[in-house]
Amino acid sequence: MVDRRTFLKGAATGASFSQVSSTAGLAGAAGSAALAFSSQAIAHPADVHRFSFGEFEVMVLSDGAINLPVSVLTENMDAEKAKAFLAENGQPTDIRPGAVNVVMLKRGDEVMMMDVGSGMNFLETAGRLDESLDMADIDRDAVTNVVITHAHPDHIWGIIDDFEEAPRFGNADYTISATEFDFWMADGRVEQLPDSLKPFALGAQRNLSPVAERTTMAQDNHEVAPGVTMIATPGHTPGHMSVLIESEGKQLLITGDTFTHDLIAFQKPDWHFGLDMDHAQAAETRVQLLKRIVADDIALIGYHLTWPGVGHVEEKDSGYRYVAGL
Ligand SMILES: [Zn+2]
């Protein structure tokens, strides 16, 4: 039985961003080489991963998958050498299926979402968050806070429910970096960006505007709630932030898109990721954050790391490696 929401989703994805962008040629995103989200469907279903962390109940909710050509993750590298490195380490060398790991924190009546997925208008392989919320038995009206790492489609296009034409989490307060908000919302921004990024700005404005009055603009070290602090991790976007969870002497970092590949982002943090808007700054952020993560024994959750993206970092040779699991 196909309900109206499912039907609408099918209709909407009939002209989804992936198809539109492949026609328009999603070239020059982030000022870089040609890029196309893979239309090859590597699906990831709705899913829920739960664990407790100090006083918090943590749920990772699947929003689906985003499949990128490996060349996008190895942009400044010799293609053959990059493929050889991935193959040696048992990683896909053609299409990299990335997860979309939306984090929810619960503590008493506080229900906090870290990003909200991409809704139904971005990619056919994503937009599963509603199903995952249903699996987890989470009432959308119970969500008290939405914390946004950055304003890319896969993180915020889920703010507006296109079926209801209203915010998906109707009772929530929102927090985003002031720098990030100002970048995407600036007058004339759509016209200034390359064609490939115009849909990103239009989508950001469409989703952020209706909740602007309920949105707090964060600076570095902004405390959303006791034990929930946003820290500046720029580079992927100008105002990209991560969220540090501290409870009972332990720390967990929600890293957004700072680390987008299980192997490359940790062992080769200076390799250029095509969707980082400032490659030098993104690499510097990764290097500095890796030092802090190891020094302070911080666990992490990565938005696009292999489902559910929960892990920690160890020193390896003169660098680092990601190890799945806490
Ligand atoms: Zn992302």
> How far is the N terminus from the C terminus?
40 Å
Identify every distinct bound molecule in the structure, by name, code or SMILES. zinc ion
Class inferred from helices and paired strands: alpha+beta
Radius of gyration: 18 Å
Question: Would you identify the regions where 5 or more consecutive residues have pLDDT less than 50?
Answer: 1-35
Identify the strand order in the major beta sheet: 1-2-3-4-5-8-9
Order of helices and strands: HHEEHHEEHEHEEEHHHEEEEEHHEEE
| Text of the CATH class | Alpha Beta
- Total individual domains: 1
Average pLDDT score:
89
Annotated CATH topology: Metallo-beta-lactamase, Chain A
CATH superfamily placement: Ribonuclease Z/Hydroxyacylglutathione hydrolase-like
Number of strands: 16
- Helical proportion? 25-40%
Number of helices: 11
Principal-axes shape call: globular
Q: β content, as a range? A: 25-35%
Name of the CATH architecture: 4-Layer Sandwich
List the helices and strands and how they pair.
Blueprint: H1 4-13, H2 17-24, E1 48-53, E2 56-69, H3 70-73, H4 79-88, E3 95-107, E4 110-114, H5 129-135, E5 145-147, H6 153-156, E6 160-161, E7 166-167, E8 173-177, H7 178-185, H8 189-192, H9 198-208, E9 215-218, E10 222-225, E11 228-232, E12 241-247, E13 250-254, H10 264-267, H11 279-295, E14 299-301, E15 310-316, E16 319-324
Parallel strand pairs: 4-5, 5-8, 8-9, 13-14
Antiparallel strand pairs: 1-2, 2-3, 3-4, 6-7, 10-11, 11-12, 12-13, 14-15, 15-16
